[in-house]
Amino acid sequence: MGKGGQTNGGENGEKQNGNKDLIILRTHIHCEGCASDIIKSLRGFEGVEDVRVVSDEHKVLVKGKHADPLQVLERVRAKCPNKHVELISPKLKPPAPPKKLEEDENEPLVMIIVIQVFIHCENCAQETKTCIERMKGVQMVTVDVKKKQMTVVGAVEPQYLVDYLHKRAGKHVTVVKHEYQDKEKAKKRLAKQYKNGNTNPQGDGEKKKEEKVKDIYYHYPPQYEPDHLYPCLLLNDENPEACIIM
Hints:
elongated, alpha+beta, Alpha-Beta Plaits, 7 helices, four-stranded antiparallel beta sheet, HIPP4/7/8/17/18/19, prenylation, single chain, lipoprotein, 9 strands, metal-binding
């Protein structure tokens, strides 16, 4: 169990500043009762061997080889919630900045697409907006009823948006303009993928679809089967089933 005491001079505190096992806290100490509360809060705490309060300097000296400075600080703050307590020594290293996450090349880029669509009333505009918001990848949709235009923000391809509205809402849609939201990011990805031979900035999704299409095989019937003869082979000498003119 740790011992406790109170000193009124700064000499004792200055001598102990060079001790590596010493934890120094600063807080406002205005009376003996205040100092007693701090000592009681750390009495018997894990790793704490001795606690001294220097009233003149408003410091708390905590001695302990195995005492954790942060745990001691939090202990005093928890037991004396009305006091502002800060750690003077030892000075802790600032936390390392979070590592910058590498960009996922397969993550689709966000686009801003402006489309021209026939909207004759607010109800029609709301229905079309709701239809677009159900699309996967759409983040935001704004409507301009006067210009009969809608602005769609999200990871959506313009042609897919046109086909989707035509199929789901029966709307004839024209793309007015489209651009990437983060132009620098899109430019870097395009440059990198052009070097790798991939011209699709939206990742490898479309490339994989093309590879799947290449794996499709079409099987035709045998060339010389009687039920599946081509017209040009009916009079061919190489066809054993061809007509023979004597």
